[in-house]
Amino acid sequence: MTVLSCNERITLRQLQMLIILSAMGTGLIVLPRRVAEYAAQDGWLIVLGLTALAMALTALIAAAARTKANASFVVYTGYALSRPVAHVCGVFLWVKLVLAAGLEMRSFLVITRQVLLKDTPVYIIAAVMVGVCAYAAVKGIETRARVAEVLGIVLVLPLIFLFVVALMDIDLSNLLPVFTASPERLLSGTLRLGFVFTGLECLLLVSTYVAPGKKMGRAAVGAVGLAGVIITAVTVITLAKFGASVADEPWPVLRMMDMLNLPGSFIERQEA
Amino acid sequence: MYIFTHSVQIKAMENDKTITPISPHIKENMRHIEALFTDSQDFIGRYFPVGGKNAPWIYMAYVDMMSDRGLFDMTIIRHLFEMDWGALSPEEKGQDLYTAIKDRGIATVDFSEADNMEDVLYFMLAGDTAVFVDGYDKVIVIATRGFPNRGIQSAETEIVVQGPREAFSEVMRFNTALIRRRIRDTGLKVKQSKLGVRSQTDIALMYVEDIVRPEVLREVERRLEKINIDGVMDAGCVEQLIEESWLSPFPQIQLTERPDKAAASILEGRIAIIVDCSPFVLLVPVSLNAFFQASEDYYSRWQVMSLTRMLRFIGALIAVALPGAYVAVALYHPSMIPLLMVEKLAEASRAVPFPAVMEIIILDAAFELLREAGIRLRNASGGTIGIVGGLIIGQAAVEAGLVSPIVVIIVAMTGIATFSIPSVSLVYGFRLIKYFILILAAALGFIGLWAGLLITLIHLAGMRSFGFPYLMPFAAGEMNRYEEMKDGIFRFPLKRMKRRPFYANPKQNKRME
Description:
Chain A is mainly alpha-helical. Chain A has eleven helices and no strands. Chain B is built from 15 helices and 15 strands. In chain B, a hairpin with a 5-residue loop joins strand 7 (129-133) and strand 8. The longest helix of chain B has 39 residues, at 424-462. In chain B, 40% of the residues are buried. At the A-B interface, helix 1, helix 6 and helix 7 of A face helix 7, helix 15 and strand 15 of B.
């Protein structure tokens, strides 16, 4: 049955959602603290720098992926850099992905234990998470892309709503004065906090599933830009909320959400 | 090729199908048929001459009550008995005897001819009458189907306030006519075949030739051809035999009892599969979104129907997740709700000996039992069961301290939410998933609830119906420029719904200028 392909094609919108969701991992929860460590109230400039860097990298990856249509990472890398180098890069990417996934899982488990399940053994929560991820992996790329598309609406929109509510209770003077951090500090922060966009390498893998002829580069760069805007907004709101004390908050974004009072809502702990 | 032991007839095997030719000796045919119908008291066969003196002999056979007796008497018996063989003109006498009976002895245009015994038997068992003429190896088959049926009645499971009332019935030909009446286009095709080695059930595919996607039609035909079963009793059997993911609790084929819904779906490029003896028609392909659409949505104003549609989606979420969410809050995260509410919850459940999850399961099981009893005992008894169950058992359970009042509210809300979903088969899926999510939430609180919802979402995202993504247009809607979103959570004004859904042939995607 080939009305539509089976696990071979994803749409540009799905690619964008995959990129946005990948970029908004648990790293976002600690980002305001980390940028404040480098540039205090100017930390949001680091996020802007990170976004610009990520967009440039995305354009580069998209261009590389387009050198050989619908080829895998190893194939198009081999086309540009020879097959042995491509295989080494493939192994390196695989190791990087495993480590990044493990780190993401670890962060998630720590937050979960702190916020939701204090007494549940970590390995049980981890097993459930791995089970869900494995189920998604078994179902193939099209399924994962569709899930991302739905989650993009179901998760991101309420989050944006929460941050809009948070806007009502911030003190923008906490961001002043601007441009106090030195260019060296900003550059150093930009280079060292690249982990925020660590999910970006998913583009290396999923680009092969985008139908040929589509404007993948533009769509991917746009998605990274949008993710950057959201992350910058979260950072700005958090910095404006806590001011200089943000550096003392271990999970500043969670703390900020905990302090939210939604009008008409009976949910007390939005951070959960 | 081999010799048939009953007589000297020869059977030929063609594509695994046995072909038994009609013998020119009428008595051999009689013996053959009567041997096959031994101990079948509903079989009626009569050997008699027609046309008076020196008249030819014929043998008529049919199955009692499968044929329309009135039609039978008026169009066959009376004419054959009144036929005066001696009074025929010399030209007519010189005519072939078989042709003369066919042309002058049968007063109907609805007849056909068969040249093998298998076809004759199939038609007879479907209610037609076979007329064997001595000396000829062909049989006249007269359409006399007229078995008892309940006629066309009102829909029972897809009731609307505004819109047509009539529903499909068990007679396939009535059902095709109900659709044909709504689409008077020669492009509407009715492709008929048989299903079931023994039941020989008639099934028909209805579609508009230029709107349907040819590859989908081929796939439907291929899956139907693959079915090798002794009998098919209802459209539900066919549904299970041709769906993609038989392990899934969610329906991948839509069932409807409403001709207007079937006709509208055909105009969207879908295919209706009509199964004889079933009052439900299958519609393929389908998406999850289609199960939330009711016929009435298009007959009333869009603003009200958009609100109704949105309520159905919220109802689905409540039906699936509310018990799990309650258990997660009550057992793991009471701090997520205001203090006053926590106090009320604690107070209500203080005297209850069970944990929240057991309370939910006990009351939900009682609710499911009542629902089942209400289905078996319709009308007055069903209403009584509902009142007894809802008021007395619920109240008594609370007073006895078996469940807390809030659990009664949760279970009642979940039950009411399921009734807001127009498709019964989708509700069945949600009822099962609800327990899966409830157990996960009981084990891991909100993480379990979230994992359960995510697994359900992944499952739905991986499903297809005849190649179409099940979650369209909420996922992969870009492929049809999100056109179906206009008929999704909100129902846009009809003037804005100018294009057909993705099911339709891309060459015919415009339905309104």
